[in-house]
Amino acid sequence: MIQQQLRxxxxxxxxxxxxxxxxxxxxxxxxLRTTPVFIxxxxxxxxxxxxxxxxxxxxxxxxxxxxxxxxxxxKGCDARSVVALNLEKRFPNHPPLLIGIPCQRLVDRKKVKxxxxxxxxxxxxxxxxxxxxxxxxxxxxxxxxxLYSVCQVCTHRTPHQAHILIGDPVEEVSPVEAHPDVVxxxxxxxxxxxxxxxxxxxxxxRCYACREACPMCYCAECFVDxxxxxxxxKSFSPSDLAFYHIVRAYHQTGRCSGCGxxxxxxxxxxxxxxxxxxxxxxxxxxxxxxxxxxxxxxxxLSTFDPEDKQEFIK
Amino acid sequence: MENESxxxxxxxxxxxxxxWCSYAGADLAGTSRVQYSPNIRVIRVxxxxxxxxxxxxKALQSGVDGVLxxxxxxxxxxxxxxxxxxxxxxxxxxxxxxxxxxxxxxxQFSWVSAAEGVKFSRVVDEVTKDIKKLGPLKxxxxx
Lengths: 314, 143
Prior knowledge:
By secondary structure, chain A is an alpha/beta fold. In chain A, 30% of the residues lie in helices and 13% in strands.
């Protein structure tokens, strides 16, 4: 249904030349996956798909096509990334045309793979069920048991900022109050929290996939690549790995839409979203700011209020 | 350093002082012969808003046991609003590092004006006492 509407809309936008390029999701050869597709002709619109595996935040591709008029297929979190980027004046020529789809929360393929024995050869979505087929398995799973943790806590699934909305807005209630990792860690001692963090980051191979997948990481020179000053050594010492992950997360303060692209991109399955989710919570608590909700509100670290909390200052 | 016994251990504390207020406050403490703990190493910065959170992290990684950031009182900034901007960065960084597991009190912030030499000495003494209680920084520090 939504998929058909999306294709028709894309066809219309491309044939009346409203946009030069549509970035959306397409079918891929592996089960539980979709791939980004770049469509320039009305006929190509037939390759667009929409399902619970459309997990990429396609906003990250906008930086590569700054000269074109782009139509971008967005979920709630992606639309908020676009708003945040717009606040940072990233679209001086053509702000992208947002084709929004209210998100049904996405399925975590790693969780599905863990629950099913053997190789998965086919996965089909049917309403609230997932029909998973493999060489010796043929199971039906409940979709809601396999959602991404960031999707479970999401309360901004409808991309209200979109220029075109396909499908009806959804109810904004999350099944889980706060990110489960954040809640668990907040109940621990500092020592345990640091051990958890260090254990996670010790697996890092410094491929920077988390940075590349993030739409907000667009700096021409990242702090890890800078040689003057050289902030961080090119080593795998626990200290340097921790340093990288602290700063990568901290640089998202007040900018992260919580799409979870960083964690999905990680080849070592390092848990990363709990860091940015915690920062989002703090920014909301301290300054009442949520990324991408108000298109005009200045990012929290680029503005101030003389009445800001300062009980921690002597 | 490794062989130092606990009793002789003294914390190393890095203090980022803003040129216009806290650095002058420290100067006043010195010229007024006010005594304070000798554990701080001072780096003069133009403004507390100049502090990049990377400075603080780099300092902790390089082996200091604590960091103090001090600037002008709200409303007194030489650059009008630098300390307000700095305050937001400080607040978020402090909360984030504490969530990660860096102990509360490792990084501290204060407002010290050019006239507050006595307050400066008090702040330094308090920070030194806090960090002595926490002991040497064992995590994050790069050996």
